[in-house]
Amino acid sequence: MFWVRCTPGHPQSFATGLDSNYFSGRVPNLGSLTQLEKLEMQGSGLEGPIPESISLLTKLTRLAISDLNGEGSQLFPNLSSMTSMRKLMLRGCNLRGSIPGYLSQMSNLQYLDLSFNDLGGDIPDLSDIDLEKMYLTGNFFNGSVPSWLTDEFDNEREVDLSYNNFSDVPQSCYERLDLGKCLKSHPCLKTYYSVHINCGGPKVTIGDKVYEAVKNDVLTKSIRVQETGLSGR
Question: Which runs of consecutive H residues, i.e. helices, occur in the chain?
Answer without folding.
Answer: 147, 179-185
